[in-house]
Design brief:
Blueprint lengths: L5 H26 L6 H11 L5 H21 L3 H19 L12 H16 L6 H4 L7 H32 L5 H15 L3
Helix pairs in contact: 1-2, 1-3, 1-5, 2-3, 2-8, 3-4, 4-5, 4-7
Length: about 200
């Protein structure tokens, strides 16, 4: 009789589901799949949202989501995968934060949920039904958990901080402009980020 561990089965379902969603969103940004803008569209959106340099930001967001998602689904290098996905979602949360919490109003509920889920799996570990388990956790060591999450948090803080600083400077220099141009930029932010 085969003994199935419910905890490990639950982690598998959580990893595969969350990883697939993240990978799909990342592939929209990187390759334009599933109706996404690809690198060019994502670069333009990143610039409109205040991320600089915009192309590097587009590639980082796409790789954090697609790469982190695929690795989470496989259960490979799980701490790094969870940290990368959580870091990418921190950027999305920063974009959506002005609209409040709930997704129906353009808020950060959805990217926060994906980020917390990815982080939780990265911290908990992949379970037995994973590539990390098959490879004797060679890419899932305790020190890797700390390194991955500290590195991801530092990178996310730097990117989000740079964006916030740029927006506060742009807001002060654009204070004399008409409100029509500013509201148009906000609408493009919401439209592009709706896919996150």
């Amino acid at each position: 009789m085969v003994c199935v561990n419910r905890r490990d089965l639950g982690l598998l379902a959580l990893r595969v589901g969350t990883g697939a969603v993240l990978a799909a969103h990342g592939s929209q940004k990187l390759a334009g799949w599933f109706g996404g803008g690809g690198i060019q569209g994502t670069t333009a959106a990143m610039e409109a949202m205040g991320f600089h340099p915009p192309r590097h930001s587009a590639v980082a967001a796409g790789l954090g989501e697609a790469g982190g998602g695929v690795l989470l689904a496989l259960g490979l290098a799980t701490p790094a995968a969870g940290a990368a996905a959580a870091g990418a979602m921190a950027g999305a949360v920063a974009v959506h934060a002005p609209a409040g919490f709930f997704a129906q109003g353009g808020g950060y509920e959805y990217p926060a949920f994906l980020g917390f889920t990815a982080a939780a799996v990265g911290l908990t570990g992949p379970g037995r039904y994973s590539v990390d388990h098959v490879t004797c956790h060679i890419f899932d060591r305790p020190w890797m958990v700390a390194l991955a999450f500290v590195g991801s948090a530092a990178a996310a803080a730097a990117v989000v901080g740079k964006r916030a600083k740029g927006q506060s400077g742009a807001g002060q220099s654009g204070a004399g402009q008409s409100g029509a141009g500013q509201s148009g930029a906000g609408e493009s932010d919401k439209g592009q980020e709706a896919g996150r």
